[in-house]
Each structure stands twice: as C-alpha cells, then as structure tokens.
C-alpha cells in the first residue's frame, strides 16, 4: 500500500509538539528530500485553501501544524499548560528587553525571577552569559520555535510580543 507523502507529513506535524525540520522529516519518514519539501509545500497550500482552524507554519528552522490566530484562544483553553504563568511572565520580559541583566530583571519583577530564569535556562529557552556578578539573559533559537514565533531575531520577537499585547 502506497501512502500519500502529504498525509505522512501531516501526521508528522500533527503528532509533534515542536516544529520539525525538513531533515528530521526525511530521516524519520525515509522519504526523499524533494518529496518531503513538495509535501510540506502542498500541505501548506491545502490548509490555506481549506476552511479550517489549522495552518502549516514555518517556525524557526522547522514546520508546525498550528491553530490560526483567530482560533488560538479557543484551543488555549483546553491545551495543557507546559509553563506556569509566572515563568511565562519572566520569559516575556526577557524576550522583550533582551539582552537584559539578570539583576535588572530581579529588580523589575522580584527575586522569584532567579528560579524562573533557572527553569527557562533548563528548558533551553534562554541563554545566560556571566557578566560581573550577574548574567546577561537572551532568548535562544529554541525560544521562537517553542512559542511559534516566525523569526529568531530580538526585533522579530519583540514585534511578535507587541502584536500579541495589542490583541492582533
């Protein structure tokens, strides 16, 4: 039985909690590179044309099956929360103000942020570089991939956060 490569890639994206790189799709599906690339392109086009709440998005260096922005609030209500709100608040502050000194972050948000920073660092979402008696904090490449932000630069992340704050 020959399976449709587009449906195979759809299954991969549906099943993965994180964006998937083309190279990883090739390895896991054993499909040729050109077939995987065409399947991603066809699936993206298919979801753009469908009246559905889903879309295929390029997120960082991979692809993900995500909710369209207008449907995201409905899905969020039922999605399991992986990162508690207080840590999200700290992550947002770092992402918006990066690079930021950890001492400045603690001054702005309180000493609890030291624990938050440790957890964000363990998740691979932020980097910590020693500077004097403190650390300089910045987002990693994993940060925009994890949160579905299209772009890895601090400017792209800041723009995304500003749009979300406005409700766009």
TrEMBL record:
A Pfam family of this chain: SMC_ScpB
Swiss-Prot/TrEMBL keywords: Cell cycle, Cell division, Chromosome partition, Cytoplasm
GO terms (BP aspect): cell division; chromosome separation
Protein name in UniProt: Segregation and condensation protein B
Organism: Candidatus Methanomassiliicoccus intestinalis
